[in-house]
Amino acid sequence: MSPSSYLPKTAARVLLLAGLACASAQAQTEADTLAQGLIRLRGEVEQLNAELNLLREEQRTTLAGLNAQKAELANSAERQSLSAREAREKLAAREAEIAATSVDGDSLKPLLLSAIDGLQAHIRGGLPFRVEERLAELDQFRTELQNGSVPPQRGVNRLWAFYEDEFRLSRDNSLQSQTIAVGNERVLADVAKLGSMLLYFRTRDGRVGQAVRTGEQWTFATTENPAALQQINALFDALGKQIRQGWFELPIAQTGAQ
């Protein structure tokens, strides 16, 4: 074989080897790219799985809080129902006493005055909603009975009307205004009353909170918690739009021993 015929075959072998090397390098690059993509996807999956676990834990915590609120509201509703039932029983007992005694005014008057005392005690121990106004109306009724401007026989119907008002307050949800004591000052505030269980307030200067009972005393405590502020303001907005029923997530302050 002559040198001239040997050179083209050698060049062909060189070109073939170069092509194989280039294909091998390209295959290696693609494999590296796929490996990096798999690593990235695995990392994203692990991150998403961690976020999902965190979300599940937050949901469990939220559900536990909602269950605690539900239990507290159920207990409060039961206490208020018991209080209302006791008030009805006391009134029924008073009516029975009145029916069993003479209809003479001198006999009726002490029974009515005693019933007024009992109703005022009930108001003082209940939710601090317009307490001074409600007590003042009963004081005026007491004065009218004592000075004779309201006959005892007619006073029975008046007393029943007061009890009916108290029963209505225990059922109504309303948005009204009253003067409350916040810290060391008395301010005019809007109050959201939910039956006789919960009372929230919002002052004209933007302070927000709720009535909290400690022992036998009620105080109006403000809150700075962002979630509580949002929930209470949402309640005021709904009541302002005449929305009296619906689902509301609300903060419930811890109360002291009663």
Report on this structure:
The chain is of the alpha+beta class and 258 residues long. It has three domains: 79 residues; 69 residues; 67 residues, no CATH class. Helices cover 66% and strands 15% of the residues. The chain contains five helices and five strands, in the order H-H-H-H-E-E-E-E-E-H. The protein has a five-stranded antiparallel sheet. Helix 1 packs antiparallel against helix 2 and helix 2 runs antiparallel to helix 3. The chain is elongated and about 140 Å long. The N and C termini lie far apart (117 Å).
Task: Name the descriptors.
single chain, 3 domains, 5 helices, alpha+beta, 5-stranded antiparallel sheet, about 260 residues, elongated
Could you outline the blueprint of secondary structure elements for this entry?
Blueprint: H1 3-100, H2 105-125, H3 131-147, H4 152-169, E1 173-182, E2 185-194, E3 198-203, E4 208-214, E5 217-222, H5 226-240
Antiparallel strand pairs: 1-2, 2-3, 3-4, 4-5
Helix pairs in contact: 1-2, 2-3, 2-4
Uncertain segments of ≥5 residues (pLDDT<50)? none
Largest sheet: 5 strands, antiparallel
Please indicate the count of domains: 3
Count of distinct strands: 5
Termini, distance in Å?
Answer: 117 Å
The count of helical stretches stands at 5
Strand order of the largest sheet: 1-2-3-4-5
Summarize it.
The protein has five helices and five strands.
